[in-house]
Design brief:
A 4-stranded antiparallel β-sheet has the order 1-2-7-6. With 115 residues, the chain is an alpha+beta fold.
Length: 115
């Protein structure tokens, strides 16, 4: 499953739910997403997440010794793909916000609207 479910709320008739992804959830998302692009299995991929204040979020995915760099939009796409493919979420209803903290590392907050 994923890191945690933070809250349900209703604002102006719009149902929202917030999911919180920890680093492992993001790594899993990148593995699934990259595997679909490279026609391999997620377990064949190693991922390293990174954050640079000047350049934003990125990841390096290693597949059979070859490295592939994913930029912030790729990470957002990976989370969306993972939630759609593994948990049947509608990607058009997701608002994904990447975050970084010294204690938790790279995380993501995902707003699910009208679930």
């Amino acid at each position: 499953m994923f890191g945690s479910l933070k809250r349900f709320s209703e604002e102006e008739g719009i149902n929202t739910m917030e999911l919180l992804f920890n680093e492992q959830d993001l790594v899993d998302s990148v593995c699934v997403y990259t595997a679909s692009k490279e026609y391999t299995h997620p377990e064949n991929i190693d991922v390293e997440l990174a954050f640079n204040p000047s350049f934003g979020f990125s990841a390096t995915a290693r597949i059979h010794g070859q490295a592939r760099t994913l930029h912030e939009q790729d990470l957002i796409d990976a989370v969306s793909y993972y939630l759609h493919d593994y948990h049947n979420f509608d990607p058009d209803r997701l608002l994904i916000d990447m975050r970084f903290s010294e204690t938790e590392g790279v995380t993501a907050s995902i707003q699910v609207r009208n679930f």
